[in-house]
Write a structure and sequence with these properties.
Strand order of the largest sheet: 2-1-3-7-6
Number of helices: 21
Largest sheet: 5 strands, mixed
Structural class: mainly alpha
Strand content: under 5%
Number of strands: 7
Helix content: 55-70%
């Protein structure tokens, strides 16, 4: 009877956590008038075909170079409709990864629980399987985790069928999304280094098969990118060129210091204490509920005009801290040679993530870091609490509750408007379209996308750092240099978030609105959106 109660209780927990994860992914769709990303509003003006070659015209063309996830979406969408299939498939894979690593169903359940309540960015990418650009990466993430699941199984039971499945899902990753493909290559390199660091003579045949598989997959990836997405090589080359000698030197010294520190602290017993997850709950809870801008200095590490609101940034970091503390259980494995197969794979996965972290930092692309690290931390969370019982009944539910609350805090932060639109904004856009103004309009990406949703697809926007974007919002003395722009559209929402093509840009101050009021003829103003005529002469138009 006790076993029956345990099964019923576990089933109840699974349903509750799964529902919470589903709700968090559906939150914007349930509560906002127009719950779409600005990127989803645009279709390419170029001739986009699957497997185009040469340099990509735009992000839609680039996505078509990696068609596997999109082809699967075309097959499954008519069957499953709007069901959040990526979330469901990911939950299943993470459960089995957690179970495989820990050897216990509890490890799988706990890993699934953390995945279900994943951080902000990953929530957006693990929703419906869609042919839209933005969701190809979600399916690619699932392919990464699935390939690693079968690889770990192969290391443990030497069944060649698992090696074949690993190769199949790795190939699906390479042909589904460009950043996920690159990430898997790096993870494979990390795992390869980990395996050969711990090579044992008895496993030499296994390692030969692994070597052939890894080398073959990496050659396939390089050939694919060379043929279908050469811009990826250009991006890597430009990143390397951009690194000066001083930065490279600092990076090498930092890595050496990091490794030395790890070597000396790896055996510190207090780092494996159950007290640390308990203690870490305190600063995490403070970050979740505090509106204070603790991390303003971090924004200087980003691109020009980089911005994240205090509440959202605090909760991003809270989500990271509360789960990434479990990486401490890998420290004793970092330099060991005699490890179990799953420990070797875990260590290699972690080594690969370190390389990914460095690459994303050099690219100043911080938003994706947790997308790749969080699944491993979910598995480690499950592994840790399978082996430890002290404070377990308290820490596990508090951790999950804090993850839920932190996400709700992010959703209710005005900065989240970069992911949706309000009805009042939609009504304003329809009124402006109704004016039938002749000439070219310009604004930020978010506003341009809203016009596109409303049927007017010719409102221009500029990439952060480009003349159109900077002149309109930050460097007004460059406005006379703008060509073929007749009107500028400003929205009051820009005081909370201005959306650019690559990065959120600094919200506008009242001075910007006052500047347009003073220097340009106001064509329209409903208190939410305003339109200004800027093209009569190269000088400011005095009212």
């Amino acid at each position: 009877m006790k076993k029956v109660y345990k099964i019923v209780f576990c089933f109840f927990i699974v349903i509750v956590v799964f529902s919470a994860g589903y709700y968090l992914r559906a939150y914007i769709s349930l509560h906002e008038y127009l719950p779409y990303s600005p990127y989803e509003a645009f279709t390419s003006v170029h001739d986009i075909k699957p497997l185009n070659t040469g340099m990509a015209f735009d992000f839609m063309d680039k996505a078509a170079r990696y068609p596997s996830a999109r082809l699967l979406a075309k097959i499954f969408n008519p069957i499953f409709g709007d069901l959040y299939l990526v979330y469901i498939l990911g939950a299943i894979v993470i459960f089995f990864l957690g179970k495989e690593i820990s050897g216990d169903n509890l490890g799988g359940l706990l890993a699934f629980s953390v995945y279900a309540l994943a951080p902000e960015n990953l929530l957006q990418y693990t929703r419906a399987l869609s042919v839209e650009y933005i969701n190809s990466s979600g399916m690619a993430y699932v392919f990464i985790w699935t390939s690693l699941l079968f690889f770990i199984r192969y290391l443990k039971n030497k069944n060649p069928n698992n090696l074949i499945l690993f190769i199949i899902f790795a190939l699906l990753t390479f042909t589904s999304y460009h950043t996920a493909a690159c990430a898997l290559v790096v993870i494979l390199i990390g795992i390869g280094i980990s395996l050969y660091y711990s090579t044992e003579t008895a496993d030499s045949k296994i390692y030969k098969k692994v070597t052939v598989s890894f080398v073959g997959l990496i050659v396939f990836y390089l050939a694919w990118v060379k043929i279908f997405d050469p811009a990826q090589f250009v991006l890597i080359r430009n990143s390397v060129i951009a690194m000066d000698i001083l930065k490279i030197f600092i990076f090498i010294i930092s890595c050496l210091v990091f490794l030395i520190c790890l070597y000396f602290i790896k055996d510190f017993s207090f780092l494996q204490s159950e007290n640390i997850p308990l203690i870490i709950l305190i600063p995490s809870a403070i970050l979740v509920f505090s509106p204070f801008n603790f991390f303003q200095g971090l924004l200087r590490l980003g691109a020009k005009n980089y911005h994240v609101s205090a509440i959202t940034l605090n909760n991003y970091i809270a989500q990271a801290v509360i789960v990434h503390v479990y990486v401490l259980i890998l420290l004793p494995l970092f330099f060991k040679k005699e490890l179990s197969p799953e420990q070797k794979a875990l260590r290699g996965w972690f080594w690969g993530l370190i390389i990914i972290f460095v690459g994303l930092v050099f690219e100043r692309f911080y938003a994706r870091i947790l997308d790749y690290s969080f699944p491993l931390m979910a598995v480690l969370f499950g592994l840790y609490w399978c082996k430890r019982k002290k404070f377990r009944v308290f820490i596990i539910p508090i951790t999950l509750i804090l993850l839920i609350v932190s996400q709700l805090r992010i959703y209710n932060d005005p900065f989240s408007m970069r992911r949706y639109y309000r009805k009042s904004e939609v009504d304003s856009v329809k009124s402006i379209i109704g004016l039938n103004l002749k000439g070219t309009m310009a604004s930020d990406l978010r506003t341009s996308a809203l016009f596109s949703y409303a049927g007017k697809k010719d409102v221009e926007f500029g990439r952060s750092g480009y003349l159109l974007h900077d002149a309109i919002f930050y460097e007004h003395d460059k406005i006379p240099s703008l060509e073929n722009v007749d009107y500028v559209i400003l929205s009051q929402s820009m005081k909370e978030v201005v959306y650019s093509t690559n990065f959120a840009t600094t919200p506008l101050k009242e001075e910007t609105f006052a500047f347009y009021q003073k220097h340009f003829k106001e064509i329209y103003n409903d208190g939410l959106m305003s339109v200004y005529l800027i093209s009569i002469s190269s000088n400011y138009i005095k009212k």
